[in-house]
Amino acid sequence: MRGVIEGVTTRPLRPDRRAEPPVANAMIHRTVLLALTFALGACGGGASRLPLTFTPPPEPASSAVFVGRSVAFRHLRGEWKRVPGYDYEFTVVANRFPGRWDVVKEIHRRHPDYDGLAGPRDQTLHFEITTSPAAGGGTDLAVRSTLGSGTGHEDQDGRLVLELTSASKGWFVPFDSIRIRQEPPDREDRIRETVELFSRKNGTEIPFMRMEETGQLYRPAKSP
User: Fold this and answer.
1) pTM of the model
2) C-alpha to C-alpha distance for 131 and 143, rounded to whole angstroms
3) Do residues 75 and 83 make contact, with C-beta atoms less than 8 angstroms apart?
4) Pairing status of strand 160-166 against strand 148-154
5) What is the chain's pLDDT, residue by residue, as a tens digit (224 residues)?
């Protein structure tokens, strides 16, 4: 609609759109945030719970505690970039029974820059692992966990690899697989573990995030 100012016909006023972000960019931004919410939430498992039981769990054949810290990386434009806001401290309690392992992992994100997209700062993960002797030596593993289900293998030296199909699925989730690699303890019972989030497309792995964990393993003292 044209306006009239003191007898002068003017063009209709048009809003200055230079300061407004393009609609496409706004949509992309919202999509990225949504993707991170789904994806990183899979790592945290905000709704995770330990299995319910009416009776105390049985006495394990052996137990160990793994305590340490993780540093986080995100894959952007072909490079791994540090994202300190997603670093966390962790405690793992691993109980081994004949034919199965029961593992509970607590993580705590205390960095001030954590943005909450992965859920609560304090979270619990649970792993039920069924074990069986491998034909070529070592132990084959079948896993059900907060993060997803899958399989793995522990070799005779204690080197372990698990690969899970992510429990979080959806159009905006930028990964569909989780790989956990754990090195055997060194002489001082220090352990290194890597958690990778990635997707597979046409036979190619597309990385999303990587968490590098280091910590100390504590086991019951042996009698002399």
Assistant:
1) 0.76
2) 9
3) no
4) antiparallel
5) 444 333 433 344 444 444 444 444 444 343 343 334 334 444 544 444 788 889 998 899 999 999 999 999 999 999 999 999 999 999 999 999 999 999 999 999 999 999 887 779 999 999 999 999 999 899 999 999 988 999 999 999 999 999 999 876 665 677 889 999 999 999 999 999 999 999 988 889 999 999 999 999 999 865 44
What count of other Cβ atoms lies within 10 Å of the Cβ of residue 81? 10
Q: How far is CA 147 from CA 61, 143, 175, 197, in A?
A: 25, 10, 12, 11
| CA distance to 19, 142, 153, per residue, from 134 (Å) | 63, 12, 8
- Residue 112 has which token pair? 């001030």
CA distance 25 to 31: 10
- Calpha distance 12→133 (Å, rounded): 79
Name, in order, each residue with C-beta under 8 angstroms of 121's C-beta and a sequence gap of 6 or more.
108, 109, 110, 114
Cα–Cα nearest to 48, from 143, 167, 176: 167
What are the extents of the domains in the chain?
Answer: 23-50+61-218
- Report whether 196 contacts 205 (CB < 8 A): no
For domain 23-50+61-218, the question of CATH label 2.40.230 is answered with no
